[in-house]
């Protein structure tokens, strides 16, 4: 499987994402600058965390207009797997590829700690490799407070689009939401960082299952 890891000015988890899929998973990947305009030859897109364009206006609001975005939107609309983590999740909501928005944490503080997550939908292209329903991943964000209107929430619940929830909500997210997919299930956004939890040396390994699930889903589909 060949992943594109998108690099915006201000991304700071791009190398971690690359390390996770190449060094830990054994798949191939390429760091792709925000100025690129094509995703030809890639089977999956990883939008990493960070502070794209300095978080000016709102997190992800400027990245959403970068040259690579039309290609990402096309890729997603054709059913390609797209993962956005943290700032990547914010970019995906700004781009309209995922419903809702990320507000400031209710504490108005940047929160950096390990969190326990419940896998609320194990039957997705991002979670199928997990054999447990509870995992621990780190969070590191100032604007992770997920919001959507009640109708959208009900629709997502009915469609199984809520994939991860916090067991102890750290940021005020509606329905304890930590990660969601689009209705088609090929785009996932999540605030916790799976790429920071892929080897014992980092203290956590629960992120690996997510990348394994993506690789399996792509190989099955090919
Ligand atoms: N780690 C991240 O991607 C942080 C995202 C964003 N800059 C925030 O603070 O919410």
Written overview of the protein:
By secondary structure, this protein is α/β, with parallel strands linked by helices. It has one domain (2-221): 3-Layer(aba) Sandwich (Rossmann fold), CATH 3.40.50.880. The protein is built from five helices and eleven strands; from the N terminus they run E-H-E-E-H-E-H-E-E-E-E-H-E-E-E-H. The chain has helices spanning 14-24, 69-77, 87-94, 150-159, 208-221; strands at 2-7, 28-33, 44-47, 81-85, 101-103, 111-119, 134-141, 145-147, 162-166, 177-181, 187-190. The protein is globular, with a radius of gyration of 16 Å. The model has no long low-confidence stretch (mean pLDDT 97). The structure holds glutamine (GLN). Its main location: cytoplasm. The active site is at residues 86, 193, 195. Keywords: ATP-binding, Cytoplasm, Glutamine amidotransferase, Hydrolase, Ligase, Nucleotide-binding, Purine biosynthesis. Pathway: Purine metabolism; IMP biosynthesis via de novo pathway; 5-amino-1-(5-phospho-D-ribosyl)imidazole from N(2)-formyl-N(1)-(5-phospho-D-ribosyl)glycinamide: step 1/2.
């Amino acid at each position: 499987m060949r992943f594109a890891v998108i690099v915006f000015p201000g991304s700071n988890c791009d190398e971690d994402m690359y390390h996770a899929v190449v060094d830990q998973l054994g798949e191939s990947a390429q760091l792709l600058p925000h100025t690129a305009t094509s995703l030809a030859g890639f089977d999956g897109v990883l939008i990493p965390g960070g502070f794209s364009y300095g978080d000016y206006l709102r997190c992800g609001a400027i990245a959403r207009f970068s040259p690579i975005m039309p290609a990402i939107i096309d890729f997603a609309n054709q059913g390609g797997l797209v993962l956005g983590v943290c700032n990547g999740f914010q970019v995906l909501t700004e781009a309209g590829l995922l419903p809702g928005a990320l507000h400031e944490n209710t504490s108005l503080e940047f929160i950096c700690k390990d969190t326990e997550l419940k896998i609320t939908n194990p039957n997705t292209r991002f979670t199928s490799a997990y054999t447990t329903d509870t995992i621990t991943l780190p969070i590191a964000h100032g604007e992770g407070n997920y919001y959507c209107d009640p109708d959208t929430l009900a629709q997502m619940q009915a469609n199984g689009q809520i994939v991860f929830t916090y067991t102890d909500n750290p940021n005020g997210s509606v329905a304890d939401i930590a990660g969601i997919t689009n209705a088609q299930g090929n785009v996932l956004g999540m605030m916790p960082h799976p790429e920071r939890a892929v080897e014992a040396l980092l203290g956590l390994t629960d992120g690996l299952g997510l990348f394994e699930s993506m690789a399996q889903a792509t190989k099955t589909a090919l």
